[in-house]
Amino acid sequence: MIFCSAAGNWWDGLTATHQAAFILAAAASVILVVQLVMMLIGLGSDGGFDGDTSDIDGCGDLDCGIPDSADDAFNNDGIAEASGLRIVSFRTVVAFFALGGWITYTMAYFLPWWGAVLIGVAAGCAAAVGVAYLMRAILSFQSDGNRKMGFAVGKIAEVYLTIPAKRTGSGKISVVVQDALTECAAVTDSDEPLSTGSRCVIKAVLSEQLVLVEPMVATKPEASDEKAE
C-alpha cells in the first residue's frame, strides 16, 4: 500500500510530457527485451531451430534465423529502403520510441517540453538508423553464409553423426567449404543409414540448417577384356 501510494504520488507529480515519454519509452523497452529474449532462444527466427541441430556451428551460416521477422507485423519490406537499408521497420520504430522516449523524459527536467521533444526525436532517429545498419550488417553476413554453403553441393563430406535412412532423422556431417571446415545437419534418401566415419556426397541444400546427402558408391575396377589363358 505504501509503495502504491508513493507510485501514485510520483505519477501525479509528473508533467504531461514526462508521462507521455515514460509510457512510450517503457512500452518500447519491454518490447525490445522480449525481442532480445526471443532471439536468444531462437524464437525470433522464421525457421526456428531443430532440437537435433541446436548445437551446429557451421551450418548456422546458412541462415541463422535472425532476419527481421518481427518486421512482418509492421511491413514486410519496410516503408523506406536505401541500398538494402530498412529505414522504417518494426525494430527501428521500437528503438526510436525506446531511446527517444527516455531521452525526452530525462531532458524534460532541464528544458521546456518542446526542447526535450526535439532532442528526444533526434536521439530516436539516431537509434532507428543505428538499428537499421545493424540489421543490414547481420543479414549481409547471413547472405554471405548462404553463398558459401552453395559451394558445398557436390562436395564429398564425412559423416560425423550417423544419418538415419529414408529421412527418418538427421545426422551430422563435416565438409570443407572454401577452405573452412564446416559441420552441418544432414539427411539421406538412402535405404541404409550412413554410419559415422563413412563418406557421402552433398546433393542439395534443403533448408536453413539441413543438407541432403547420398552415400558414395565405390567404383569397381573394370574387368580386363582379355583373360590370361
Quick structural overview:
The chain is an alpha+beta fold and 229 residues long. It folds into two domains: 12-147, no CATH class; 156-215, Nucleic acid-binding proteins (OB fold (Dihydrolipoamide Acetyltransferase, E2P), Beta Barrel), CATH 2.40.50.140. 41% of the residues lie in helices and 18% in strands.
Distance between the termini: 108 Å
Number of strands: 7
Work out the strand percent: 15-25%
The helix-strand sequence is HHEEHHEEEEE
Provide a count of the helices.
4
Largest sheet: 5 strands, mixed, barrel
Give your account of this protein's structure:
With 229 residues, this protein is of the alpha+beta class. The chain has helices at residues 2-12, 16-41, 90-107, 113-150, and strands at residues 81-82, 85-86, 156-161, 171-177, 180-188, 199-207, 210-215. It has two domains: 12-147, no CATH class; 156-215, Nucleic acid-binding proteins (OB fold (Dihydrolipoamide Acetyltransferase, E2P)), CATH 2.40.50. 41% of the residues lie in helices and 18% in strands. The strands form two sheets. A five-stranded mixed β-barrel has the order 3-4-5-7-6. A two-stranded antiparallel sheet has the order 1-2. α3 (90-107) runs antiparallel to α4. The radius of gyration is 27 Å and the shape is elongated.
Q: Which secondary structure elements does this structure contain, and how are they paired or packed?
A:
Elements lengths: L1 H11 L3 H26 L39 E2 L2 E2 L3 H18 L5 H38 L5 E6 L9 E7 L2 E9 L10 E9 L2 E6 L14
Parallel strand pairs: 5-7
Antiparallel strand pairs: 1-2, 3-4, 3-6, 4-5, 6-7
Helix pairs in contact: 2-3, 3-4
